[in-house]
Amino acid sequence: MRFCSISVAFAIAIGSVAGSPASFFNSGYLARDAGIEQRHGKAESYGPLKASKATPPYWLENIAHNGESSHLNASDKTSYTVFRNVVKDFGADNTGKKDATAALQRAISTGSTTADRASGRLGHTTQPAVVYIPSGTYLISATLQLYVSTIVIGDPNNLPVFKAASSFSSNVMLNGQDPNHPSLGMFYAGIRNVVFDTTSVAPGRNFSALDWTVSQATQVNNLAFKMPVGSAHTGITCQNTFYSNLILNDLVFEGGAYGINFPNGIQWAFKNITTRGTKVGIKTVGAHVLVQASDFRDADVAIDGSGVQASLTVLDSVGVNVGTFVLAADAKGVSRNNLIIENVKNPGRTVVVGLMPVLLGDVVGQWIRGPVFADGKTTYQPGKLFNSARPAPLLVNGKYFTMQQPSYQEFGLESFVNVKTVEGLAVKGDGVTDDSKNINKILKQYAGSKIIYFPSGTYIVANTMIIPSGSRIVGDSYGTVISGSGKVFSDAKKPVAMVKVGNAGDVGVAQLSDLFLTTADILPGCKVLEVNMAGTKPGDVGLWNVQYRIGGGMGSKVRTNCGGSQADCLAVWGLLHLTPSSSAYIENMWGWTADHDLDGSLPQNIASGRGALIEAKKGTWLLGTSMEHHVLYHYNFQNAENVYAGLQQTETPYWQGVQPNTLAPWPWADALAPTDPMFKNCAANNTYCRMAWMEIIYNSKDLVLYSASDLAYIFSPGTQTNAIDVKGNQRVRLYGTNTLHFQNIFTGDGQVLVPKQNGSAGGFEMDSVAGYFEG
């Protein structure tokens, strides 16, 4: 039994709405191509864990919800409830006959007896809310407002419908940006498993279902949007201010003027977007954009990228009865508005610049417009077809493997265990008690036989949390925190994993969803997550919406004790290590070392050592990931093989290049590992050279990295010297590499390979290299 695809779920849900016959779903669109099943992956039985033959009630609705917000003050904590069922707890009408707006908003806004969530008084990181929407139709007449740390989750077995009333009082159904926070600081919000229906709103109105003006560590997935065909409506927009998100995925749009219309922003990855009868599928303005595994039918324009400033990449996508597949701006022979079109099926005008078609029909290999580095030199390509082979271990049916986040809806409640309810193995999740011993016993006891649910809370682990083969773990998104503490993680020269997925050579299943990883103390020897396991097939080992935060939030001495020198705050050894024996699919991961305090104004002078160290060889997929503010490097590919990356974002620590005497590898110079950069290419006092590498790629082969955003926000005159260092690689391909404030984009063996591209400054001042080919 496979995971319910959003298209099927949407058809069922829309078919149940009065007056909405889902006509286009009855016209054969569901059989769109053979790759849909593989893109979503399959839910398969593993050992004693068996999927139900009949569709069971969604487990999340009935499992015990005994979580907490561990770091609220005592008076608020006792009266605060994380999980909210909008029907049972707040009386929301789900028949579609009565207005449900007020009840839905109460479910979102309710806080403690002393303050509601709308006030912002409960803090950024201490007011998590899981707002559960049972199946049914909810009539909405005014804008619903989300707040930080909120996840809205519908029943994936029968998607609930948010139906806009004909008398809707404003121009958007749901606003994702908390008014207490700027959009660039709007982290930790999400919505999934919901249908938005705007068909009762006048088709001529400028009306949107969802405004998603947010930034990293947010999620929008498994949503459907039903809009009147030919209307002026929009599915998802970002109208408020500037924003910096990572990924939107697994979405279906019917009708309307735009499926997605984003007039601003830095970077986006759009994965598995389906549009039917929508005039423009995606219109986006941003520094760089990736569109992957998407399907557009009956549209004037599939992708309007005419406002994309640095690079637009389109992979593994389809257009049918589309006037223009990609609408692009004139690059005028310089490094901006670069295009990478790869493995696209479209029988008509595939790329149009202005009014001029420049590419017709299918693209089998890579069609590239922009600067391309190959054979030791950079040349500008006005539009050239390349035929670089893709690494076979990364493909399913000829496409890069992707997988929808599992909801485990095919399993009944008997297949789950709440980690806080296991008799004889007490787990507190209170932010104080060391839970590691009993957590490890529970994970070992139920590996392969139960799906482990971690309700909201902060689970202190003073020893490594070991994820054995056969594990499936799911949390309460922004409320479920695994936090390291103790002497085990104190030695910078002998790093120890806080969370370890399998041992070297293990093969099996290990899936983690909706978890938050952090530390409760300054731990120089803490490697936050280490993955050793591989699966028998892609997606067996996977992480979805697993986020990191080092400092910046309540419950950690990194936040309270790091106001002085960075040398006194070697907070963690590193965040992510994919070892040589691993094979993992990772989607939507933000590896953030805090540059500011989310819950106050304490200085955050934090020196986390490393972002992601990738030594994996068997097949690795990184989609919508980011590593920010690490001292030595952000992504480090060492002897890696068979790696796909779709949209990587990095930022150097803001204090590097600005504060005196903060030259890398300081303050880690006395605890460097063999895989660390030594900065031998930099003079001892060269401030702008001795800054964190954005990417290091050494002795690797068969790497394909698409749409990177490497950013150096140096708040003083000058630019960082180097972004990416390469050496000894075979068949390494980077497409759409975008940098901000760097003198050199690629270096190797101490030599400059690709310097800043003259004339490349777009609206976001980025340099962009459309293609880099090595080996």
Automatic annotation (TrEMBL):
<keyword id="KW-0732">Signal</keyword>
<dbReference type="GO" id="GO:0004650">
    <property type="term" value="F:polygalacturonase activity"/>
</dbReference>
<dbReference type="InterPro" id="IPR012334">
    <property type="entry name" value="Pectin_lyas_fold"/>
</dbReference>
<dbReference type="InterPro" id="IPR011050">
    <property type="entry name" value="Pectin_lyase_fold/virulence"/>
</dbReference>
<feature type="domain" description="Rhamnogalacturonase A/B/Epimerase-like pectate lyase">
    <location>
        <begin position="417"/>
        <end position="488"/>
    </location>
</feature>
<dbReference type="Pfam" id="PF12708">
    <property type="entry name" value="Pect-lyase_RHGA_epim"/>
</dbReference>
<dbReference type="InterPro" id="IPR039279">
    <property type="entry name" value="QRT3-like"/>
</dbReference>
<feature type="signal peptide">
    <location>
        <begin position="1"/>
        <end position="19"/>
    </location>
</feature>
<dbReference type="InterPro" id="IPR024535">
    <property type="entry name" value="RHGA/B-epi-like_pectate_lyase"/>
</dbReference>
<feature type="domain" description="Rhamnogalacturonase A/B/Epimerase-like pectate lyase">
    <location>
        <begin position="83"/>
        <end position="303"/>
    </location>
</feature>
<protein>
    <submittedName>
        <fullName>Exo-beta-1,3-glucanase</fullName>
    </submittedName>
</protein>
